[in-house]
Amino acid sequence: MTQRTRTRETEDDLSDILGDSESGEQAGQGESFRSRTKRKAVNFFSPRYFLLATVALTISMFVGGFIPFVETIGGLVGLFAAAFVLGGLTSESRTLETATGGLVAAGLTLLLGNLTLLAAGGTTVAAVGLGAGFLIAGLGAHFGNDLRDGLTRDL
């Protein structure tokens, strides 16, 4: 008797995870398992937003890198500013996509700007640069999202 109850609880847990309210009954009526999985995956990580964030953050890092006397820091400031704006403009929290886009932007900037350094074995410098890009873009998106949320919330 307890085995049957455990099986039913496991089925209920599985149906909650998959999004079925009536476990097997809804699968025939509504959307298929594949389309539900695809929709949930896109809600978790949006490839379109990732591509937009990557392009915007790469451009901002290149532009920030042209500031005289502070090329590297200027690129990171540009990266943070663009991530902050992206976080403030989007209605949903897309911190993961923005942070990953920052990682790619930092990688492209590092690759194109310091090709001789990387060829000479600067993997530690590359790892620190990629980590900094991920962290700074993620923080910028989070702070921008937090500001937008604070400004639009009712008191």
Automatic annotation (TrEMBL):
The keyword Transmembrane helix applies. It comes from the Archaea. The chain crosses the membrane at residues 49-67, 73-90, 102-120, 126-144. Keywords: Membrane, Transmembrane, Transmembrane helix. Residues 1-34 are annotated as: Disordered. This is Uncharacterized protein. It comes from Haladaptatus pallidirubidus.
